[in-house]
Prior knowledge:
single chain, 8 helices, mainly alpha
Amino acid sequence: MAPEVQSRRSHTLSQAKQTDMFSFGLLVLWILFREQLEENWRPTQTPSAPADSGVILTVTRRVIQRVTDWLGGSQPEVGPDIRYLMSINPIKKSGNIVRAVALQLVEDNIDDGSKWRKPLTDLLGQILQFDSFSRGDDAEFDKIERVFAGQRFVGPIWFSLCGC
Length: 164
């Protein structure tokens, strides 16, 4: 969830699009690097987690509950990968390191020669900005589409990205 969501009662269409771009960035990050996010979670982080991570966890659980109610099923337990994402994405700028972690994961896990490295670095670097105004404008959706346009993934997405 975008950091600014908790501080606003309502959103303009433009603000909602900025929030959607951030959420899309988190989804891309989670899909591509779920194992690494899970490995980065340390249960000892709980006491020192940012104070607002509890708010994010509560909201995340509500969203998960609504989706599972709608789909019909039991609510899944929040795994270490999601807990780690929540711990690095607090609503206070001083503790929010989700963008830095995303860029480091791309650098560490995507081969230098891969055609995905620069587009993913550019994409995640822009849409995971803490400041919603720095994420770009409506035209950024076209840029996102161009990054993934014409790509077909056969087998695990990871092998397609790292050029394995």
